[in-house]
Amino acid sequence: MRILRTCPYLTLLVLALVTGIKSYSQTAKINIIQDPKFEMLLNEKRKINSSITVNDRYKVQIFYGTNEEAKKTLSTFKKEYKNLDGTIIYSNPNFKVWVGTFKTRIEAEKQYKEIVKKYPTALLIRPNK
């Protein structure tokens, strides 16, 4: 049986490579430079995502009609009520403007009484129920 000897040069080369890789590797420090507008965009997206779940929330429908009129109604509503969010929903063949996201009916009715003064055709609804 023949005994194989390792070449001393090969051993020295492997040892030098392993030592070199260890000594010149990068540190694990990461600096992320991010535009502040990106965080604002993420917050808006989170707000929109939280309002998508309409199954168990009450809303007030303030308009039912054409797309142009729905956009105008929503923009005037947002100027008057800055603390409430609103959205336009398409229901063939018309558009609806829904505002607010209320957890309880009592909370929705309080706001509904205020909204009905400016929008007399407003309805208190619970979508998908």
Strand line-up of the largest beta sheet: 2-3-1-4
Strand content: 15-25%
Q: Could you name the CATH class of one domain?
A: Alpha Beta
CATH superfamily of one domain: Sporulation related repeat
Named CATH architecture of one domain: 2-Layer Sandwich
The whole-angstrom Rg is 31 Å
Question: What is the overall shape?
Answer: rod-shaped
The largest sheet is: 4 strands, antiparallel
Class by alpha and beta content = alpha+beta
Unreliable stretches covering 5 or more consecutive residues: none
Span between termini: 85 Å
- Give the topology string: H per helix, E per strand: HHEHEEHE
**Portion of residues in helices?**
40-55%
Mean pLDDT over the residues:
84
Protein name: Sporulation related protein
GO molecular function, one term: peptidoglycan binding
Organism: Flavobacterium cauense R2A-7
How is this structure best described in words?
It is a single chain. The model has no long low-confidence stretch (mean pLDDT 84). With 129 residues, the protein is an alpha+beta fold. It contains 4 helices and 4 strands. It has a domain at 56-125: Sporulation related repeat (Alpha-Beta Plaits), CATH 3.30.70.1070. The radius of gyration is 31 Å and the shape is rod-shaped. Strands 2-3-1-4 form a 4-stranded antiparallel β-sheet, with helices on one face.
